[in-house]
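Feature request disguised as a bug report, sorry. It would help if multi-protein outputs had a clear separator. Right now it looks like this:
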Amino acid sequence: MDFLTKISKKEITARIKRLQSELRNHEIPAALITQNVDLFYYTGSMQNGILYVPESGDPVFYVKKSVVRAAVESSIEVEPLGRMRTFGERIQARFGKPNTLGLELDVLPYQLGVRYQQMLDTEIKDITPIIRLQRAVKSDYELTQIQQAAILVDEVIQQLPAWISTGMTEVQLAAKMEHYLRVRGNINLNRMRGYNQELSLGMVASGAAAATPTYFDGPAGGLGLTVASPQGASFKKLAQNEPILLDFSTVVEGYMIDQTRIAVIGSLDDDLVQAYEVSRSILRAVELLGKPGVTWESLYQHALKIVEDAGLQAYFMGFGDDQAKFLGHGVGLEIDEFPILAKGFQQALQENMVIAIEPKFTFPGRGVVGIENTYVVKSNGLVSLSISSEDIITI
C-alpha cells in the first residue's frame, strides 16, 4: 500500500480537536461516527467501522473490515470491532457511560440509530450541523487537493474543441471526458450526502435534452441513458447551434471541484448569449459580496435581483415547477456540503469555506446556459479556484 497517499497525523489530529471542542460547547460527552465520508475525514481511512470520539482524550476507530488496512491508513488508534452485542460494554468499560451520544442523524439509518442508543442506554443528539459546519471550512491541505482537481478539469476544457463534433452522442463525449480523468486518478464518483441523490461525472447534455427536468436537485437534469438513471448524458446526438452543457467535476484525494462551461458547434441565439452574460455578471457581483460574516442567503437574494432586472426570472435555475431554489453549494469530500446559498440560511460565511456557485438558465426545448466556478471565501471576497476560461467554447 506504499503507493497510496496517507493524510498526515497533524491534519487528522486538528480535525478531532475541533470536533471535541464543539462537543464540549454543546455539552455532548461523546460522538459515534459511522458514515464513510465522515469516517475518512476524522480518521484518514474509509474502512468499515465505527469511530468513538469522547469530548476529551483519544478517540478509537473500531473496525470490522479491514483492520489491517485501517491500521496502515488511519492516524487514529484502531481496534477490531468484534461482536456488536458486546460493543456497548466495551465502550463503557473504556470510556464510561455517556449520558448523551452524538450521531449523524441526517444519514444514519433509523434502525442503526436505535441500536446504538440501546447498546449504550443513552440519550441521542444530532451532531450533523456540527460536522457539516466544521467540514465546510477547509484547511490548507484540503484547498491544495481542490486546486489540483481544478487543473485536471481545465485540461479537459482545453481538449474539448478537438473532441466535440456534430453527430457524436452526449454519452460519447462524456466517456471521453471520463476516460481522460479516470486514468489520471479520478475515482469517477461524486459523493453526495443528500438522500437518494447520485452523481458520477456530472451533467453533460445538449439542447432540449439538457433542459429535460428530472429528480436531481439542480437546475439541469439531462435525459439520461435509461429511466433507471434519468439524468445526465443520453444517446442524443450533438447538433449545431445549440448549447452543450458541461457541468462536471473531478476528485483528487477525495476532494472535488465543481465547474460548468458551455460549448456550441456554430453559434448560439442572441438571447441565449445574453442569458449567459447575465450568469457571468452574477458571479462578478457575488465575488465581491462573499466575505466572512455575510449570510449565505444574501448572496442568493442578490442574484435574484440581478435576474429580475434582466427579466429572466422564469428561466433561472430551471423552469416552471422544476426550478431549483439555490445559487450555490459547498464542495469538498461531498458535492452537496455547507454552505448552501438559498433562502432561509442565515448562517454567516467563514474564511476558507469553499462554494460552487452556478447561476444557470433553462430554456425548455432549447437548452441550458450558465456558468459555475468553485470559490474559497477570503477576507476581501471570493477567490476562484476554477482556472478555466469563462468564454463560450465555440467549435
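(second protein starts here, but nothing in the output says so)
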Amino acid sequence: MRVFITGIGGQLGHDMANELVNRGHECIGSDIQSVYSGVADGSSATLIPYISLDITDAESVSRIIDNIKPDAIVHCAAWTAVDAAEDPQNQEKVYAINVSGTENIARAAKKADAKMIYTSTDYVFNGQGNIPWSPDDTCFEPLNVYGKSKLDGEFVVKNILEKYFIVRIAWVFGINGNNFVKTMLKVGKTHDEVRVVNDQIGTPTYTYDLARLLADMLETDKYGCYHATNSEADEGGYISWYDFCCEIYMQAGLNTQVKPVSTEEYGSSIAKRPLNSRMDKSKLVEAGFVPLPCWQDAIARYLKELKSIGEE
C-alpha cells in the first residue's frame, strides 16, 4: 500500500511513518518545512521520501497527490496551538490550515480514490458532565477556536469522502515534539513543587500506540468515527492531568511535589478547556481493532524511549 502522510514532522506523523514502513508499506511524507530531518533515533521516518507541502495551497496539494497516486492518506498536519488559536490575528490561519487545508487533502483523496484518516480531538465536545463521549455523538459544542476548526474539518471530510476514518484523540505525547510529559519532566528537575489541574478528566494518547492502531485501520475498510486514547487501568478509571503528572514523576523517580488545583485556580489558559474528556472507545473492539494499551504502561515505554535517545 502506498501511503501519503501530512505533518510527518509532528509527533504522530513521525510514528505513523515508522509503523507503516516497518509493516512493509510504501510511504511518502510531507510537511511545511523545506527539509525534514526527523529525530536522532535511527528511525525509518527519516529515510522515507519527503515533500515540502503547504496544505493551504490547493493547487499544490492536488498536483502532488495526483502525482503520487496514494492508496491512502494519513492527514496529521494541523494547527494545534490551542491558546494561540484564540488570538484574532491567528484565526484566519487556524481555519486555513485546519479547515481549508483539510478540504484540499480530502478533495485530492477523492480524486485519487484513496482512503483517508483525519485525526480530530475531544475538543469538538463541550466537556460537560461525566459520561464518556461516544464517537457517534453529534452534540457538538466546542469551547474554543481550535475545537471549532477541527470540528469543521470533520464536516469537510464527511461531506467529501466515503472512505474515511475520523479518529478523535486527546492529551497527546510522542517522541518527535514537545508535550506534557516532556514539559513536566523538565519542570520537575528544576522545581520542588508544581501545580497541575485536577478537574479536567480523560486519558492520554501515546502516538507510538496510536500509530499502530491507525495502521491497522488503513489495512481495513471499516470506515467511520472512532475514539482512540490509551486505555484506563480499570473500568471507569479515567484520570486528571494531576494524576497523569504524579504517575510520570513516580515512574521517572522524581520527588517533586504535585499540588492539585482547579482549572479556575490554575488560571493561565487563554482558551477554554473541556472538563470532561472521557472518551468511549468500545467501538474499536466492536469493529475488531485492538485498543491502545493502558496509559501507565504507555508512560513506562515512553520514558524508556526518551532515555534511549538521551532526552529523559
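Even a blank line would do. Unrelated, but nice: The CA atoms of residues 230 and 292 lie 5 Å apart.
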